[in-house]
Design brief:
One of its GO terms (molecular function) is L-threonine 3-dehydrogenase activity. With about 325 residues, the chain is of the alpha/beta class. It has helices at about 10-25, 40-45, 55-65, 75-80, 85-105, 140-160, 185-195, 215-225, 245-255, 270-275, 285-290, 295-315; strands spanning about 1-5, 30, 45-50, 70, 110-115, 160-165, 170, 195-200, 210, 235-240, 240-245, 260-265. The chain contains twelve helices and twelve strands. The strands form three sheets. A seven-stranded parallel sheet has the order 3-2-1-4-5-6-10, with helices on both faces. It has a three-stranded mixed sheet with strand order 7-9-11. The structure holds (3R)-3-hydroxy-L-norvaline (VAH).
């Protein structure tokens, strides 16, 4: 039995649906502090849960005999800069609550996402290695570094089976992200279809590591299915697929929508983006559990535009 915390968010929404298709609707309990989209609410059990409240989580764990938790509740990088204390409380207390439930043997497996935001201005920017300097300059990054150390600690000390990936920017079309620095690469597709123009909050040559949602969801489920002995990294695996700049994604969109126009007006998020790597070396994930991505910028763009066009024509 699986519990997804943060199931109504950008990744939670698609992860829940994929888990339901793999393990069966009744075996995947979705939860969040707000309801999810129609598809999720209709396809299986849903519970309102505050992910920082251990008692509430335990009640659900017992009600459904949960064995695995995917913890997707978090405050992202840009929002966290404006609400540091709230971000720390949400990002840390939810993780510690779930780690404790595993330590106390209420559950036996945890997935927790880390991020390339664990890296900072002093980290090598290109092909950032698995083991390198982690001196983040954002509140979000600090919470992810601390979280990674907690995961490793609970594994070493109490044998907790916790697994983690350092996600790059995740690009989706079903649910929008909220409050991240990589959100532009989602917004741009919606704006391209709605008004054929987009004002980007990052500058044209800001290169960041990114990944299509389908790849991210597959990596997550794949990691959770690996035999424990094959998981060599217990803080968090580097994970990568593609990297591009706002200019490059705009050019790709123009192949489908020739009169699409992009303008640039960098804001405070530019500094966050500038502190992160441009590309990631994820060879350890590829070696240890055979990680492979499917989508590049071209195939991802074609897939998103095809799906959004379908969605817009339905809503007309
Ligand atoms: C953010 N999407 O922008 C997140 C992420 C790689 C960055 O973790 O905050």
């Amino acid at each position: 039995q699986i519990l997804v915390l943060g199931a109504s968010g950008q990744i939670g929404t698609e992860l829940t649906q994929k888990l339901r298709s793999v393990y069966g609707n009744e075996h995947v309990i979705a939860s969040d502090i707000r309801e999810g989209n129609k598809e999720m609410m209709a396809s299986g059990p849903f519970e309102i849960v505050d992910a920082t409240n251990k008692k509430q989580i335990l009640a659900i764990v017992q009600k459904y005999s949960i064995t695995q938790i995917y913890l997707l509740a978090a405050m992202l990088s840009a929002t966290a800069e404006n609400h540091p204390q709230k971000a720390w409380n949400l990002n840390m207390n939810s993780l510690l609550a779930v780690l404790d439930l595993a330590k106390e043997k209420h559950i036996n497996q945890i997935y927790w996402p880390s991020s390339i935001a664990v890296f900072g201005p002093t980290t090598p920017k290109e092909n950032t290695p698995q083991k390198t300097v982690m001196e983040p300059s954002t509140v979000y990054g600090i919470s992810k570094v601390a979280g990674e150390f907690w995961c490793d600690y609970y594994h070493q000390k109490f044998g907790v089976d916790v697994r983690s990936l350092r996600y790059p920017g995740i690009i989706s079309w079903k649910t929008k992200p909220g409050g991240g620095t990589t959100d532009y690469a989602v917004d741009i597709y919606f704006k391209a279809l709605e008004d054929k123009k987009y004002e980007c909050f990052l500058s044209e040559n800001t290169r960041l590591p990114m990944m299509y949602m389908d790849d991210a969801v597959n990596a997550t489920i794949q990691l959770m299915q690996v035999k424990p002995k094959d998981i060599k990294i217990r803080n968090s695996y580097n994970l990568s697929a593609i990297d591009f700049t706002p200019k490059e994604i705009a050019l790709e969109i123009q192949k489908h929508i020739p009169d699409f126009k992009i303008t640039y007006k960098p804001d405070f998020r530019q500094q966050i983006a500038d502190s992160w790597p441009q590309s990631i070396d994820d060879s350890q994930a590829r070696e240890d559990w055979n990680w492979q991505h499917q989508f590049d910028l071209k195939s991802m763009t074609a897939d998103i535009i095809k799906n959004l066009e379908k969605q817009y024509s339905k809503s007309l």
